[in-house]
Amino acid sequence: MKKFLFDLFPLILFFAAYKFADIYVATGVAMAAAILQILWIKFTGKPIEGMHWINLGVIVVFGGATLWFKDDTFIKWKPTMLYWLFGGVLLISQLFLGRNLMQKLLGDKISMATAAWNRLNLSWALFFIAAGAINLFVAFSGYFTTDQWVNFKVFGLMGLLIAFVIGQSVWLGKHIDTKEGEPKP
Predict the structure, then answer these.
(1) Is 179 strand, coil or helix?
(2) Contact residues for 54 (Cβ-Cβ < 8 A; gap 6+)
(3) In Å, how far are 27, 55, 59, 69, 167 from 40, measured between CA atoms?
């Protein structure tokens, strides 16, 4: 739980700063928080995960463009780009490189048939692509305000992720091998 909250540190500070100031202050705070997050990990001597570097890169690029051009369009694209990057990496690695990143990530913890690993990898890729598209709809359809988008970014996308993880957990429970090479009945 502690790691989960630490990973959400920039998002939590973004939300708080937005509620007390505006989208530009919140963007700057999120950028500073992502940098501080990397520095803290480095200071404590722990390895910096690839996801932290990716998040830092995306927030610096899109947040920097938001502040430079004084246009919140860029920061509204940030969740979509991050999710599409994750989804694209999962898809490309499986379809074109023959590597299943979900299996690489979780394979030492659980055992499943190759077909189940491929479905799991594909479902995560599709989830990220769909979540990115939903973010674009909320951000740019004209049906929602910036306030509503910020709430969606923080609570809606997180809610979708949690619901998806719960669904994946149920699905995994049906596909994890009970013994090496022996599927669950």
Answers:
(1) strand
(2) 82, 85, 86
(3) 20, 15, 17, 30, 33
The sign of the torsion formed by the CA atoms of 95, 98, 91, 107 equals: positive
Tokens of 27: 């963007």
SS3 at position 170: helix
The set of residues, in sequence order, having a beta carbon less than 8 Å from that of 116 and lying 6+ positions away, is 175
Q: Any residues with CB less than 8 A from the CB of 58 and at least 6 apart, and which?
A: 78, 81, 82, 85
pLDDT tens-place string over residues 73-119: 999 999 999 999 999 999 999 999 989 999 998 888 888 888 889 99
Angle (CA) 51 56 61, round 5°: 130
Type of residue found at 45: G
**Token pair for 37:** 């997050």
On the 0-12 / 13-18 / 19+ scale of CB atoms within 10 A, 117 is buried
Q: Give the span between the Cα atoms of 129 and 121, in whole angstroms.
A: 13
